[in-house]
Each structure stands twice: as C-alpha cells, then as structure tokens.
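[Q] Does anyone have a clean structure-token version of this?
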Amino acid sequence: MSVKGRILGLAIASMALGACASIKDHRGYLVDAALLDSVMPGVDNRTSVERTLGRPTFISQYGRQDWFYISTNTRQAAFTRPKAKEQLLVRVVFDDKGNVARLDRTGMEKVVNLSPDGDKTPTLGRQRTFLEDLFGNIGQVGAGGPGAGAPGGPNGS
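[A] Here you go.
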C-alpha cells in the first residue's frame, strides 16, 4: 500500500472515531460549592441569597415562595438525544419573614426518564374505527333540538 493510501485510510479512520465522541453540555445554574455553603439558615434572607447565588432558576408559584437552583450536566452521543448524567437541585426554603429556613439538595434521584408508549396516547373509553367516527353520529345530531316542533322557548313555555 502506498503512503498516500495509508494517510487517506488513517484520516478516514480518525474522522469516523471523532464522530463517535460524546458531546458534553452544562445546562442551568453554575454551581459554586463555597457559595452554596455560605448560605446559612436563620442568618440569610432573600436579598442576601440573591446577592450570593444570583437569581433562582425558578420560584414556586403556589404555596410557599421557595427558590430553586437547577444544574444539569448532559452527554449526547452522535444522532441521539442528550441524557442527564449529573444533576443538582438546590431548594431554598424561606420562613414567613423572608429568612432562610433551610437548604435542600438533591441529585439524580429526582430525574425521571419518560418513554412514550409508541406513537399512540392511551385513553379511556371505546376504541372506535375511522368509519365509526365519521358515520357514527348520522341521525343523532339535531334530533329533538330547539325548534323541532316544541312550542315556545327552550323550556317549552
């Protein structure tokens, strides 16, 4: 084999191996452990937490106004969807006066992988065919409705 053929083969092999490499990505809050550890329950309030950690990823809309900081590291192989490999969810709970009551930290145990059931959504009720849907109401729509021989208004008066 010639030198040019070897170089070409080596270039094609390196491109093929490069296509198999996974893509790493970070989504959400950039975690600084020292800053998280500096937030003290009973000492800090909403203003000091915002100055220390920044704006939360989201704030709960119902009940208590808890703040959530979410950080997710994902990996994605070629031609696939990204999958979460690491996650940190920090929940800052405030008391009625706006002071930090506690910090809850959770990880991957809160990640749920949903797998849809094929290309159909299961529903309750009858399974009808297309023709039953198309012709099933013939003769039923409009029978006995307002103005069908009843005197007066909708109450029959």
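[Q] Thanks! Anything notable?
[A] The chain has a mean pLDDT of 81.
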